[in-house]
Fold:
Amino acid sequence: MMILWALIVLINNNACIYGRQLEHNNPAVPVMSAASRFLLESAPAKTPLLEEGTRWALLVAGSRGYVNYRHQADVCHAFQILKKGGLRDENMIVFMYDDIAFNENNPRPGVIINSPGGHDVYGGVPKDYTGINATVENLYAVILGNKSGVTGGSGKVLGSGPNDHVFIFYTDHGSPGIIEMPCDEVVYADDLINVLKRKHQANAYKSMVFYLEACESGSMFEGLLPKSLNIYAITASNSTEPSMATYCPDYNHTSTTSYEYDVCLGDAFSVSWMEDSEKHDLRSETLGHQFQVVKSRTAVETPDGGSHVMQYGNTLLSKEILYTYMGTTIIPNDTYTWEGAAPPTLKSVSQWEADLLHYKHKLFKAPKDSTVRLQAQKQLLEEINSRMLVDNRVNQITTFLLGTQRDISMLHTARPKGMPLVDDWTCLKTMVKVYEENCGSLSRYGMKHMRTFANMCNARITVKEMNAAAARICK
Structure:
């Protein structure tokens, strides 16, 4: 009798579970919203686990300075997710300047958080390439698995083989055609693509996923990343817009954390994919599903603005499960936390404005007539004046070169979708060099004018002409 009763209970439980699964997965169920159907369309049933190969990860924070707290917070958070997912330390490489955790401005010394009230994500993060060792040269050597090519640091590289799966997460400031590294170096899109091509030619991975958080990050892959490389890239923004910082000082007036910190704690794209990863069993969620979740959460149509999350390369990889690249912290009876509605949007500001917000908040918090207040006021004015100076110089140079407003406007125009930023990357690099030789550092903010320099090359303006114009305006 007891055995019969147990069988009846088991059958009833299975029927209930099956019913809930139908309600969860069947888009025809009337009670499910359109948003839910949209977000669940890429979520398959359990997929067979990774049978061969090794997971590798490269995590890069490309900035330095407390004002850029969020980038290192993003990378540290990503490390913790992958670590919990089962990736081994020897297969994860971290680039970050490492000047945030014990910075004098950090209200919690030795602790880094990635959201208001969040837990510490800094503990246990390996210091592979920090400080002056977080260089472009080391980055390329690490990607290529070239141990003899690295200088300083831990010496760890992506030693992946033909059956391995590689995940790269890069969070940073960016501009058309470039992303930055902590020591005032830049990674040009053509150089990065060439490194990835060499990695592919060496048969050093089976598939690769590249998540990129930066302004105009789509320009790093637009018209450049061949599908044949078997790389699936997701970017925080398209090729013409900024990406967004979030969890900023004014993010939530009811949170004590928002007053405790005068910096943005994360980036909208980055925290969206990571918070999504923490809510699901990644053995059943696809890359494509996460793309849709993140795209929805950071959408431009949200009340506070956002960016267009984009995908490039071999988009067929979007059907693969996240477990293949990130492992998973198994969540029993995973039911997708945001079922029934789109995931909550994030209040955010453009990365270009995050610096100004930091200085403004420091000024607001500082006691009247205090040294701290005077310093914050000075920093804010210097940043504003520096931006105005670069803008004016670039505008005067373009006016000198072209004269008419119509021609000047042409230099700020994006090329058609599917075309790279520039045809001649050597010309672009030379134009930037000529500007800096005559006018001083372009600065992180000034890099937003990269499209103007690229369009000079596309319009066949010569280096000689650019040099004459820059010398006339700046000297």
Summary: DSSP finds 16 helices and twelve strands in the chain. The radius of gyration is 24 Å. The domain at 55-349 is CATH 3.40.50.1460 (Rossmann fold). The first strand starts at residue 55 and ends at 61.
